[in-house]
Amino acid sequence: MRYDVSFADLQVQPLAAVDLDVPAPERIADLIGPAFDEASGAASRQGIALTGPPVAGYLPGADGWRVTVGFPVAGVVSPEGRVHAATLPGGRFALVTHTGPYDGLVAAYAAVRDYALENGFACEDGWWERYLDTPDVPAPRTEVLVACHPVRPHATAP
Questions:
Q1: Which of 14, 86, 138, 157 is deepest in the core (most CB within 10 A)?
Q2: Which residues does the UniProt record annotate as the domain AraC effector-binding (predicted)?
Q3: What residues have CB less than 8 Å from 46, skipping those under 6 apart?
Q4: Residue 155: inside a domain, yes or no?
């Protein structure tokens, strides 16, 4: 699959979020659905509007993954159960939209990292995903966002 990767300067976005410690990647799908429901439910009960599609941030660790899942919101959510206020970070990101099964996202990550390196940037550890469609869509769209920083002096994004 060919990917059209680009850079974007993103603003910090407040989130209604749930943090998950996931020991193995195959467990992620079972855990994030209920966490999305918790986050959207808490925002709704608090009268805070959702302002975008669901997101998940992934940070690999020695014992699995730290996953932050939630929704961009129009205010700051108060703690409720596992739900807390968090942010989708701002800054320079390389991003691409993957269309198809989630197990094909590995190629999208590789395309993002290659593009960043070719343009004088390195990717930070971890990444974010925006789920533009529900999982029941035959070919769901997932936007992959990876924070980047310049590694060459005066590197500028195309």
A1: 86
A2: 3-149
A3: 77, 78, 80
A4: no
The residue count of the chain comes to: 158
Q: Each residue of 125-147: pLDDT tens digit? A: 889 999 999 888 999 999 999 99
Look at residue 54 and tell me if it is in a domain. yes
Task: Name the residue type at position 17.
Answer: A
pLDDT in tens, 6-56: 999 999 999 999 999 998 878 888 899 999 999 999 999 999 999 999 999
CATH number, residue 37: 3.20.80.10
Beta bridge partners of 51: none
Domain containing residue 19:
6-150
Cα 146 from chain centre:
8
Among candidates 120, 143, 153, 156, which has minimal Cα distance to 72? 143
The verdict on residue 97 lying in a domain is: yes
